[in-house]
Amino acid sequence: MVDLKTKFAGLQLKNPIIISSSGLTNSADKNEKLEMAGAGAIVLKSLFEEQITQRAQQSHEQAYYSEGGNFLNEQLNKQDLTDYLKLIQESKKRCSIPIIASINCCSSKDWVEFARKIELAGADALELNILSIQASPYYECGEFENRHIDILTNVKSRVRIPVIMKLGTHLTNPVALINKLRVNGAEGIVLFNRLYQTDIDIMKLEYISGELLSSPSDITPSLRWIGMSSAIVSNIDYAASGGVHNGSAVIKSILVGASAVEVCSAVYKTGNQCIRPMLQSLEKWMESKGYESISQFKGLMKAKDVNCASMYERTQFLRYFSERD
User: Fold this and answer.
1) Phi then psi for 300, rounded to 5 degrees?
2) What's the CA gap between 231 and 306, in Å, rounded?
3) CATH class of the 6-324 domain in this structure
4) What are 290-294's contacts with CB under 8 Å, separation 24+?
5) Hey, CA dihedral for 156, 158, 162, 163, is it positive or negative?
6) Given its phi and psi angles, is residue 198 left (phi above 0), alpha (psi -120 to 50 degrees) or beta?
7) 3-state SS, residue 131
8) At what angle do helices 111-120 and 143-156 cross, to 10 degrees?
9) What are the structural domain ranges in the chain?
10) Tens digits of per-residue pLDDT, 304-314?
11) Residues 70-93 as b or e (16 or more Cβ within 10 Å = b)
12) Category of 42 on φ-ψ map: left (φ > 0), alpha (ψ -120 to 50) or beta
């Protein structure tokens, strides 16, 4: 009998499948059903700083006096936070698996106090999602990475629950940033967040959203960077995100060093019933290989170092195109 239990960011999970932050996790009822379907943990739908700020600014513009705008600003923040705290509390009452709160933020000014209230509401951990594209001509190299550190250290100064950093793909050197995040107290790293895809309607000459959901091939960046990062920065837990659609993706992610995976698009496409087949596939594979626990094969195929990974990439590139000639 194989044991699927794993540990991620200080949390004990009954299995490595975490449902990632999305509309799938925005109610206690949905979260209870996800646990019944087999999920090992749940990341609640994020509080979005930009969304709150935008609504507050609109309220300010509509107010007759600046004082009125400030009042509405404060009330919007309070209402958003109140609703979110209720979601945490209700999910904790109805679920026995870890409930991870999520903040999608771009600054550190308000989130310190919010994070403390989230902890008091009963969240088992907090995932910080700092997703942004840097396109300013006045951007200073390293500014975006330093913002991650600033937000993390400010939040860590007020909470004791584990803090998880979910990173985007637009980073020059994820390994270096991960190491700095580890030094500053991050307990877990999720690679990678998914940017909204941009497309164009050529008849209307309008920007439109591209494919919102991931595909199985999207797992590649996570495998590459977890494989390298887990070999170099080993004393922090990793989770793969983006492209986890089946049991094979779960297995691959653990092989390169992940402790868990975050699943979203697969559930959107096929429903909660996709979770059990992933777990069954993992169990069957482990039995076929003689593994009794995840720790026995976790990181078995991580890159020994950056040079090793780089050489592997070049070798595969040359082999692929030589075979096509």
Assistant:
1) -60, -30
2) 9
3) alpha beta
4) 291/2, 292/1, 292/2, 292/3, 293/2, 293/3, 293/5, 294/3, 294/4, 294/5, 294/6, 294/16, 294/254, 294/259
5) negative
6) beta
7) coil
8) 40
9) 6-324
10) 766 666 655 66
11) eebbeebbeebbeebbebbbbbbe
12) beta
State how far Cα 302 lies from the chain centre. Answer: 20
State which of 59-63, 111-115, 202-206, 210-214 shows the largest mean pLDDT: 202-206
Q: Quickly tell me which residue has 């705290």 as its tokens.
A: 85
Q: DSSP letters along 35-49, please?
A: HHTT-SEEEPPPEEH
Contact in structure between 18 and 267 (CB atoms under 8 Å)? no
Mean pLDDT for the stretch of residues 121-145: 81
Beta carbons within 8 Å of 77's beta carbon, 6+ residues apart:
52, 56, 110
What is the identity of the amino acid at 1? M
Structural tokens at position 3: 């044991």
| pLDDT confidence of residue 314 | 63
pLDDT in tens, 185-241: 999 999 998 877 788 999 999 998 888 899 999 999 999 999 999 999 999 999 999
Q: Which amino acid is at 174?
A: P
81 — pLDDT class (breaks 50, 70, 90) = confident
Amino acid sitting at position 91: S
Residue 167, CA atoms < 13 Å, CB-side half-sphere: 32
* Residues composing the chain: 325
Once rounded to an integer, what is the mean pLDDT over residues 141-153?
A: 87
